[in-house]
Design a protein that fits this description.
The protein is an all-alpha fold and 100 residues long. The protein has three helices and no strands. This is DUF3649 domain-containing protein.
């Protein structure tokens, strides 16, 4: 049974924004989140865990992107989260530098 057209996104730009936010934005948030954790905690354990939880988080963020009403709004949220996590990465690298 096909989807009811009244529930589908009519605008091609909104559809494009949702698809790109789901794929690229979700990936950026997922990776930056795990790297932010790795900058403060045990790097090896976090990176190994990221191999599994990264995909789970990415899929969850994809679902959220398609449930949103506006593709541009979800892009803004994902970019904001990515920038926040990048700030946490910067602070983590400043206070916990890698010394090998």
């Amino acid at each position: 049974m096909p989807a009811n057209p009244k529930y589908l996104t009519q605008s091609k730009w909104q559809r494009f924004a949702k698809i790109t936010a789901a794929i690229l934005g979700g990936y950026f948030v997922s990776v930056s989140f795990h790297l932010a954790l790795a900058s403060w905690f045990n790097r090896v354990n976090i990176i190994m865990t990221m191999a599994f939880t990264g995909f789970i988080l990415w899929v969850a963020l994809m679902v959220i992107a398609f449930l949103a009403k506006s593709g541009l709004k979800i892009w803004g949220i994902y970019l904001l989260l990515t920038l926040i996590f990048c700030g946490i990465i910067y602070l983590g690298q400043t206070y916990n530098p890698i010394t090998t």
